[in-house]
Write a structure and sequence with these properties.
Helix content is 78%, strand content 0%. The chain has 19 helices and no strands.
Length: 465
């Protein structure tokens, strides 16, 4: 029996080293997992919509409805997966086994999603509904436990911020790979057959992602257990969240911010292809944007040493709103000015994800402090649903607006359609970002309140060890 197993069977002593400094190997090992996830998520955000409209040949309005309707499944499966993971007991922990065994189903369903079947228009739409739903279900089985894992590796708030910064540096590295290389890989692997190129590209990404998930399993440890007397039902987990004001604020915030991020990523491809007329710059624009996101994520632990997480996120989202709206006024021939503003927006958005996910772990602490019960995976699962719903809403809004403004795939666009594309990249996500800054005003866990919560929890854990 390993040391992890011994401590797991001894009641609650796994929390004794919960505040210990995490080794670099473990931070790197955990972080690499989100490189794998973003080989999928970045493709969904940047390319899936244009794949459906311009490669599969589906109507933009129908695609928008499909991407939103499929999120109804996530409304059930995300919290369900969180509840299952919280109640899992294995010699490897609660969350790590799912990260290992869920990789192959995700790879398989990813290839199916980016497959163009030999069917008529209605059949292709049904195929899109079915395969996208299956892929997101497979994604949930991995992503919920992975996110929750960060909440049980350490109880120290600054360590969590650092750990999650490693995660999102890797995430944005994965996004950079996808944004810079995907269209080239589709051309190289397909050799003129674009649908085949998409299949093979997603197959390659699936293999790389599976290796990343195996590394997460091998290098991480779970250190925090729920209180040993805890035996609450799933309904109680949900009620606890609904009474958790910090989590409710973050739930709304995650939805709002994800609308900003996905709307900008998804519309940029259309912006370059149909407004600027330079589709060959897609890799450069998206790639530099991803690098800027990674730099912003890397700076997060430094920024949080000087600025409260709540205030920092508020300032960043306000700046994103201003910069995104400013991009609307850039003439189409001033492409490098647009490039610069787009990169600045990426830099400002970079810290958002490390900050938000660190706050989710803090919310799990807050629930335990307030109720004596802990449901780490449920906390992250419900928040992840908010993010996925926000992303789907953004994609749906893009598709519906394109359809409403007269978009026709692979054709020169009307002035109205081009205006809609520009608004989708600039003013609309800019206003949403400003809304996110306003929402953050209601988040109550500043540094002083969080320190009190964690001090009380540590005292309780030591008393029951």
């Amino acid at each position: 029996m390993t040391q992890d197993q011994n401590t797991a069977h001894a009641g609650h002593p796994r929390t004794r080293d919960a505040g210990a400094r995490l080794p670099l190997r473990e931070k790197l090992g955990y972080g690499i997992g989100d490189f794998g996830f973003n080989l999928y998520w970045a493709n969904i955000s940047a390319f899936l919509l244009i794949f459906y409209t311009d490669v599969m040949g589906l109507a933009a309005g129908a695609v928008g409805t499909m991407m939103l309707v499929t999120k109804l499944v996530d409304a059930v499966t995300d919290p369900m997966m969180g509840a299952i993971a919280d109640r899992t007991r294995t010699r490897w922990g609660r969350f790590r086994p799912y990260i290992l065994y869920g990789a192959l189903p995700l790879a398989f369903t990813g290839v199916l999603t980016w497959t163009v079947p030999d069917l008529d228009g209605g059949g292709k739409l049904l195929w899109a509904y079915g395969t996208f739903t299956l892929m997101m279900l497979a994604y949930t089985v991995l992503a919920m436990p992975y996110s929750a894992l960060s909440g049980v590796m350490t109880a120290d708030s600054q360590q969590r911020t650092t750990l999650i910064s490693f995660r999102f540096i890797a995430a944005f590295a994965g996004t950079t790979v996808v944004n810079w290389l995907t269209l080239d890989l589709v051309r190289w692997l397909g050799r003129g057959d674009e649908p085949l190129g998409w299949q093979l590209t997603l197959g390659l990404y699936g293999i790389v992602a599976a290796v990343c998930f195996a590394i997460v399993f091998a290098t991480t440890r779970e250190r925090i257990e729920p209180p040993p007397q805890q035996r609450n039902a799933v309904r109680q987990d949900i009620l606890d969240l609904l009474r958790n004001r910090p989590w409710l604020v973050l739930f709304v915030l995650a939805l709002v911010i994800m609308v900003t991020i996905v709307m900008r990523s998804g519309s940029l491809v259309y912006y370059l292809k149909y407004h600027i007329g330079r589709p060959e710059l897609t890799g450069l624009f998206l790639g530099s944007y991803s690098v800027a996101l990674a730099v912003g994520a890397a700076l997060t632990p430094v920024l949080t040493r000087f600025i409260d997480k709540r205030r920092l996120l508020m300032l960043l989202m306000a700046a994103v709103g201003v910069a995104s709206c400013a991009m609307y006024f850039v003439p189409r021939e001033q492409i490098w000015l647009a490039f610069g503003l787009n990169t600045v927006v990426g830099l400002l958005l970079g810290p958002k994800s490390p900050l938000a996910f660190s706050m989710y772990a803090d919310c799990a602490d807050y629930t335990e402090w307030k109720t004596g019960r802990r449901a780490t995976a449920m906390t992250f699962a419900a928040a992840a649903f908010s993010q996925k719903f926000g992303g789907a809403l953004a994609s749906a809004l893009i598709a519906w607006m394109l359809a409403g403004m007269g978009y026709v795939a692979n054709q020169a666009q009307s002035d109205a359609s081009r205006l809609g594309i520009v608004l989708l990249l600039t003013v609309i996500p800019g206003v949403v970002a400003l809304l996110a800054a306003w929402v953050m005003r209601f988040y109550p866990l500043d540094d002083a309140a969080l320190a009190r919560v964690q001090s009380d929890l540590q005292a309780r854990r030591e008393a029951t060890a």
